[in-house]
Design goal:
- Keywords: Electron transport, Flavoprotein, FMN, Phosphoprotein, Transport.
- This protein has a five-stranded antiparallel β-sheet with strand order 1-2-3-4-5. It has a two-stranded parallel ribbon with strand order 6-7.
- It has two domains: 56 residues; 127 residues, no CATH class.
- The chain is of the alpha+beta class.
- It contains three helices and seven strands.
- Strand 4 and strand 5 form a beta hairpin.
- The chain is 42% helix and 23% strand.
């Protein structure tokens, strides 16, 4: 019976030692390659963002990151070699949380277009306000002032919301307003 107990203790110790070795190797790899993984993730995010910026301004050959002003909801600002601007903005006014868009502003101070970066809106309802059809209604709009889907007050311009997607429409308009505020601080209009 003593032999069986010793065998069980030996087996338990062996399993514990192997588990500790595996945990140590995993932690070492994570620690040693953590910076490489972070750099890879950043490069992937930049490549994705670069592709979206290129969709907004296909004639641009390069985009340079700019020092972003302190505007709540503004993630980053890029300036194209054509003089156009791209603002990556996030609004917390979506139905299911944050809606992140890229807002392109032409060199003449008008909206060029919008690109969806991230969203979690209801398919077929909220996403109806994240379509090229709805976004196209903002093309050519002066990047100044404040837009609203509600009744316009002083200094505001009313825009229509997508029926059934009011929360998401508000998030889109909020993203535009964030971009307009940042654009004004960057020296636009």
């Amino acid at each position: 019976m003593a032999r069986r107990r010793n065998g069980a203790i030996f087996s338990a110790c062996a399993v514990l030692i192997v588990a500790l070795l595996c945990a140590g190797v995993t932690a070492g790899v994570h620690y040693g390659l953590g910076d490489a993984f972070a750099a890879s993730d950043a490069a992937l995010d930049e490549a994705k963002g670069g592709a979206q910026r290129k969709l907004l301004f296909p004639d641009a050959t390069s985009f340079e990151a700019q020092s972003a002003p302190a505007v709540e909801g503004l993630n980053s600002v890029y300036k194209a070699d054509t003089g156009a601007w791209v603002f990556d903005v996030t609004s917390a006014q979506g139905y299911h949380g944050d809606v992140e868009l890229m807002v392109g502003i032409n060199a003449d101070g008008t909206v060029a277009g919008l690109q969806v970066v991230a969203e979690d809106e209801t398919d077929g309802i909220g996403t109806n306000a994240l379509t090229e059809e709805y976004f196209g209604g903002f093309a050519g709009t002066a990047a100044a002032g404040e837009l609203t889907v509600d009744e316009a007050g002083a200094g505001q311009t009313h825009v229509d919301a997508v029926s059934g997607a009011t929360f998401t429409s508000r998030a889109v308009v909020d993203c535009l307003n964030i971009a307009f505020a940042a654009y004004a601080q960057m020296g636009g209009n």
